[in-house]
Structure formats: structure tokens, C-alpha cells
Amino acid sequence: MRPRQEVEGLIEGMGGHVSSAVSKSTNYLIAGEAPGSKLGKAKALGIKTISYDELLGMISDKKAIT
Questions:
Q1: Residue 27 within any structural domain of the chain
Q2: pLDDT of 16-44, one tens digit each?
Q3: pLDDT band at 7 (very low <50, low <70, confident <90, very high)
Q4: Does the residue 58 lie in any domain?
């Protein structure tokens, strides 16, 4: 897994927005091995939780499309 700042750079480089808080406007929560309380909040709000590998797959798919 890459450092958080590098992952944030990948997301922002693809036009995404990174937030340190979970809210109803959050699209995805990237959960590591110990996601903490944000995972519970995301579940309560119905936000899709993805792994780092899923994020990389989404980025690869988008690069293949564009």
C-alpha cells in the first residue's frame, strides 16, 4: 500500500476530491486494515467501502476509458 498522501494525489489527479471526514456527499470510503469509526459512519450513511486494490482497479479502468 502506498502512503496516504500518494493515494490522495492519485485520486485528485483523476479529478476526485479527498476529504478527511465521512458525510452524505462522500462517494467511497477507502478502508485499510483498521478503518476505525469512519467505517461505521459510512455504513450508516450507505456509502460504498472499497479497498486500496479496488481503488487501483477503478483508476486503471478510467485510464483505459479515457
A1: no
A2: 999 999 999 999 999 888 888 999 999 99
A3: confident
A4: yes
